[in-house]
Amino acid sequence: MMRKMWLLTVLAVLTLQPVAGQEIPSGIPEDLGMSSQRLQALTDLLQGYTDSGMLPGAVVSITRRGQVVHESAVGFRDMESGEALAPDDIFRIASQTKAIVSVGVLMLQERGLLLIGDPLSKYLPEYAETTVAVPGDEGYEVVAAERPITIRHLLTHTAGIGYGWGVAAEEWDEADIQGWYFGHREEPIRETVRQMAALPMDAQPGTEYVYGYSTDILGALIEVVSGQPLDAFLQENLFDPLEMNDTHFYLPEEKRDRLTVVYSISEEGLERAPEESDMIAQGGYVDGPRASFSGGAGLLSTARDYGRFMQMMLNGGQLNGQRILAPSTVRLMTVNHLDRIEYTWARGIGFGLGFSVLEDLGAFGAPGSLGEYGWGGAYHSTYWADPEEELVVIYFTQVIPATGLDDHAKLRTMIYSSILE
Prior knowledge:
It is a single chain. With about 425 residues, the chain is an alpha+beta fold. About 25% of the residues lie in helices and about 15% in strands. The chain has helices at about 35-50, 95-110, 150-155, 170-175, 190-195, 215-225, 230-240, 305-315, 325-335, 360-365, 405-415; strands spanning about 55-65, 65-80, 85, 90, 130-135, 140-145, 265, 270, 300, 320, 320-325, 350, 355-360, 375, 380-385, 390-395. The strands form five sheets. The chain has an eight-stranded antiparallel sheet.
């Protein structure tokens, strides 16, 4: 194979000097209570994944006490061409878009333009009367929603709205609204969200945790309340102030060569995903119609950009003199809001306003800290912020499906074992 003719892994570890264009300073791990040797072992582990063909490549960025203690890139941006992965390469971050859009909603609350307890229909009137599909002995019955969907329901994924694969999947399929990928759509997100309102939802609002289109609806809400397209609102209010210069819904042509390639795990190993616009494909992030700004899964970004966003959150809503949120809003977003609703995806976890929240370390069963918050993306990326340890971790790769990989668990274990004080 061509990739065997190239260096199998390319490593870049930047711990002593500031990264060009990045205002978060870099520091020596030992000065910040971490072990350089143990962080190197993390890089060696990921190098082993790429050497064995389990991962095409990965970027890790770790910040502690406000300084970058570790940044590494291993493997390939493109395995077939042998192009090495770089720390500033661009990834499809999928559901990591959700936290950014959730912050946008809370910015509007701080400006007095909405309240998260408001009914969604106050801004999107088509949601005044919604329905729910209830399974029965013969198919399902469509009944009226028992209560209005609120903005807070959307932020916590308790609005009862899935990804179109629920009880009434046939109706969502007929409407051509299923799955999280929107890059191929030629209509604005506001119009797609308008159509969703007429379809039967998966659960009564406020009764279950149902992961799906809630944050796409929040993106449409931002457009209506702010009077701006979602991309323009985020650019002006988040990306420019935080200097997230490589975060886009659709990639500028001049950055095409920095977009990483998507791979899928098959019985034969890693296979390059097809080129078409689809969920398990390269997608239309460069050549697509550029019409639909998906607040749930549409953004592209770099580990450095996303690290700046999360450092802003860890700093209580500000970075380098740019105030995005008040500290009280950050606290509100990063505590569990589910109350008596069960989070069924993992033990010891709750959900806040756009982030999962670690509530019980014993039930969780892995290293971490109470109050830690984060999420991940469909292409096997993950991230979290740990206020107790003053830690931000960003991990990007591009694998879908990623069946059988255990890199996330080992990443977490090795990072926490690198913290010595």
